[in-house]
Amino acid sequence: MTKENRSPDLKSGKGAKDYSKYFDFSGAKVIAEEEGKTTFRIKGRTIQVNSQPDYREGKRRGKEEIEVHYDFAIPEDMRTFGEGKLYSITTYGCQMNEHDTETMKGLLEQMGYRSTEDRNQADIILLNTCAIRENAEDKVFGELGHLKHLKTEKPGLLLGVCGCMSQEEGVVNRIMAKHGFVDMIFGTHNLHRLPALIKEAVFSKELVVEVWSKEGDIIENLPKKREGMRAWVNIMYGCDKFCTYCIVPFTRGKERSRRPEDVIAELRELARQGFKEVTLLGQNVNAYGKDFTDLDYTFGDLMDDLRKIDIPRIRFMTSHPRDFDDKLVQVLGKGGNLMESIHLPVQSGSNAILKRMSRKYSRETYLELVRKLKATVKDVVLSTDIIVGFPGETEQQFEETMSLVREVGFDMAYTFIYSPREGTPAASMEDNVPAEVKSERLRRLNELLSEQSRAGNDRMMGRTVEILVEGESKNNANVLSGRTRSNKLVHFEGQKELIGTFVHVKITDTKTWYIKGEYVAETAAAL
Ligand code: SAM
Ligand code: SF4
After folding, report:
1. CA distances (Å), 342 to each of 339, 385, 487, in order?
2. How far apart are CA 519 and CA 251, in angstroms?
3. CB atoms within 10 A of CB 283
4. 44-90 pLDDT, tens per residue?
5. % the chain with pLDDT above 70
6. Beta-carbon contacts of residue 508 (< 8 Å; ≥ 6 apart)
7. 238 Cα–ligand 2 center, Å
8. Nearest bound ligand to the CA of residue 388
9. Going by CA atoms, what residue is nearest to atom 3 of ligand 2?
10. Which ligand sits nearest to residue 136's alpha carbon?
């Protein structure tokens, strides 16, 4: 049995983790072991474990080369399996998960499945989960509670849990023990195995668990179902930064970059298909290319090559400040189709906290990078991520975050209360900031950010800006909404035919989180 295929020691709770800590597996019985797969019987349900998550394995950063495969195909006997059947996927968390969902939709549609908004009609329901904070996980367990009823009414329904939560040991064991009605648990490294897993779950009638701890190779030609005029493109997978609070290096594996020629070919194809905007994705896009052994090619080089492709807007996320080099600053300064909105997570303004987070930059180096960006990228608009209430954060240290937010003048930030994630170094630090103090700090921070967002919007009054029209406003069908180059949301009255096009809008009113404007029929020559 290979390490990846190791089965859990359910009975004794021995191994990398004490499973008995979670639940009582005393009733679990091994009924078969073959070809690296172990079949258990737990509480009347048969569970086939192909491989299960292992944090120690997930943390290892081996030197073995990642292979790139270009020959993926749906197994022949599954190509029409989904004909006449419907699927529903619920996605939690970040853009990376949204993009994984596009891949799963692509796989299901190649098998003949069609999508449905109505879960009651679905033959297969997948929950693509997020593990970044505890409340994201709570939502999924709540959802499983609802789905149990549906499964009871419709036993033929196939239920799957995938995404980052599936990469966690404790979660997989909790599902096996408490939510035995789930049919499939698979992780982030083996999405391409979806057709094979469906087959195993349907024909064996067992709960199939297949979560790879070691990341898989890169599979280039997986189908994707993209909608609208904006596309996500992965340029790399995984993260090697190991910030002390973060679960991602465990759930997404080691950093591995797609070959530049494959990324360039994908963008060319998207341009050919008429996509108007592409967002390049990676947990730390600035580390792009560091894993190439045969190429000296960085994220700056990639952006310099991509800006020559006929895609009107290119964005990227997320940047780690530590790897943001001068070459990239200089390439972004060329503008054109490279947008001037940059998401640059800072997490804290205190050097002591940054050190305990293991972010590997200081307040001063972050501010120096901001200075360079402001000097080089015309009209740059910066946004960030901030965690409040990290273990040991003092009032003074929190105030340093507030002062950094003022100094940079962020227009927008995703703000979070620290949530301990099992298995991460911060989870064993003393979490001595009372919950009410954390909430109060979050409130003060968000208040400051609202003021800054409003001030940033006010500065745009009277200007005429180019926006990409994305659709109708959520609250009023007569109003269209779109985004500026700097990613600000703009509402204006206009004909539906404008959706998917670039138009010019004169800003006439500003709010905290959006702007109102008037459609300018004649394209302004100079903005
Ligand atoms: N790779 C990105 C980076 O380095 O900034 C971030 C990816 S993570 C999906 C998005 C954000 O979630 C982080 O920037 C951080 O602010 C937040 N986050 C991650 N772990 C967290 C935790 N344990 N508690 C609270 N927020 C967390
Ligand atoms: Fe998590 Fe981002 Fe740090 Fe990686 S760089 S460990 S994804 S916060």
Report:
1. 8, 12, 9
2. 45
3. 21
4. 778 888 888 877 777 777 767 788 999 899 999 999 999 999 999 99
5. 94
6. 461, 516, 517, 518
7. 9
8. 1
9. 243
10. 1
